[in-house]
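User: Second chain of the day. Same drill as before.
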Amino acid sequence: MLSITCKTGLRAVLFLASRVETKEKFSIPELAAVVEGNEHTLGKLLQTLVKNKVISSTKGPGGGFFIAPEQIQAPIWKIVLTLDGDDFFQACALGLSQCSATRPCPLHNSYASVREELAAIFRSTTIQDLSKDLRTGAAFLS
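Assistant: Same format as last time:
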């Protein structure tokens, strides 16, 4: 499963992407209210996303976090890898450290195909794809 940090990061990035056309910038408290996240944790994860060029930020008056038009072309895979690494797509469904094709857990064979399908979805779905439904009101973050 995705960590709470990663889920919060996904919500924040998708919210920013839904506002890409307005070129608005948002502070940590503003984003925390929208994504229902802890300001301290959100601040740390936003800086990680900026450092990895998933989103952008500017300092000073009128500053804040935003996403540039070219950044919304990235797959959501990039957000997950930045915040959680690839464990979500590699780890055992039961959390066993020694689970493998040669020494499988009871869920291994069933979960492997689901995990591969999820990885394909996360690799092929862009931030822009998901933000479109937010802009039109067809999807919601809270």
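The chain has a mean pLDDT of 93.

User: Great, on to the next one.
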